Amino acid sequence: MYVYDTVAEAVKGLKQRGYTIDFNLEADSISCPDIKPALRPSEFEITEVYRFEGDSDPADEAVVYAIESRDGRKGVLVNGFGVSADEMGEEMVEKLSVRH
Question: What is the pLDDT of residues 7-55, one digit of tens each?
Fold first, then answer.
């Protein structure tokens, strides 16, 4: 597992390692303009997770996910947590839950 100090470093590092798609979080899927239809939780795996906690600003709290679809497409999803979290359906919450 790689170590990154910032969200920007994590995204850059993942892109350099082939995670080139920028995914967007929907309530029950992840999407990007180049992939139709959007990917449901059963259609992708999270291969790496990096969590960043803002020391002074809660808005800096984010989780960076390295994602691979069942057909081998790789990308990155950045999502806030805490007050910055997006609303998601139960299946997406379970899929994206960070386990230690």
Answer: 999 999 999 999 999 999 888 899 988 878 899 999 999 999 998 886 6
Mean pLDDT calculated for residue range 57-79: 86
Q: How far is CA 81 from the centre of its chain?
A: 11
Report CA-CA distances (Å) from 90 to 19, 41, 93: 26, 10, 5
Determine the Cα–Cα distance for residues 43 and 58; give it in Å rounded to an integer. Answer: 31
Nearest to 59 by CA among 41, 85, 78: 85
Going by DSSP bridges, is the β-strand pair 24-25/62-69 parallel, antiparallel, or unpaired? unpaired
Strands (E), 1-100: 21-22, 24-25, 30-32, 35-39, 44-52, 62-69, 74-80
Domain boundaries, the chain: 7-96
Residue 55, both tokens: 């020391």
